[in-house]
UniProtKB/TrEMBL annotation:
PANTHER family with a match to the protein in the record: HTH-TYPE TRANSCRIPTIONAL REGULATOR LRPC (PTHR30154:SF53), LEUCINE-RESPONSIVE REGULATORY PROTEIN (PTHR30154)
Any GO BP: response to amino acid
Lineage: Bacteria, Pseudomonadati, Pseudomonadota, Betaproteobacteria, Burkholderiales
Residue span(s) of domain HTH asnC-type: 9-70
Any coiled-coil regions, as ranges: none
Domain of life where this protein originates: Bacteria
The protein's name in its UniProt record: Lrp/AsnC family transcriptional regulator
Cellular component terms per the entry's GO annotation: cytosol
Gene Ontology molecular functions: sequence-specific DNA binding
SMART domains: HTH_ASNC (SM00344)
Keywords on record: DNA-binding, Transcription, Transcription regulation
Length: 151
């Protein structure tokens, strides 16, 4: 048994969560059918997962953020520790920056960018490389999302 937010999750909970991540608007009857359980079981599980804070909300994903438009890239950044705060501030001013995470390993940060074209992505990468304190970057362009459970 695993847990999220201090709540123990069994296999049924995990399967229910995966179905909701794929389609948060799925009717409880459809979820029950896919899980092979009664609709009341799904309703009770959802209520427990919501009240315990495992499920904190439902959302809509827009086509512009789902690969319907533009190009998405993952940029690893090595940054001088003395100017890391200034680098983060500069990056946060870029509207194409979707996420920025501090990570362990060879790089200090992982940035997720979405640009309307490869030309704009190229310009963004140049801008990032010119920020004082950015020592090195490597970029991976998203070709296809195989599993996406992020809202």
């Amino acid at each position: 048994m695993s847990s999220i937010a201090g709540t123990a999750l069994d296999a049924l909970d995990r399967r229910l969560i995966a179905l909701l991540q794929a389609n948060a608007r799925a009717p409880t009857a459809d979820l029950a059918r896919q899980l092979g359980v009664a609709r009341t079981t799904v309703v009770a599980r959802l209520a427990r997962l919501e009240s315990s804070g495992v499920i904190v909300g439902y959302t809509a994903r827009l086509a512009a953020t789902e690969g319907g438009q533009g190009v998405q890239a993952f940029v690893n950044l090595s940054v001088s520790p003395k100017v890391a705060r200034a680098v983060i501030e500069r990056l946060s001013l870029m509207p194409e920056l979707r996420q920025l995470a501090a990570v362990s390993g060879e790089f200090d940060y992982l940035a997720v960018l979405r640009a309307p074209s490869t030309q704009r992505l190229d310009a963004l990468l140049d801008e990032i490389g010119e920020i004082d304190g950015v020592l090195r970057t490597t970029t991976s362009v998203l070709l296809a999302m195989k599993v996406d459970r992020v809202a």
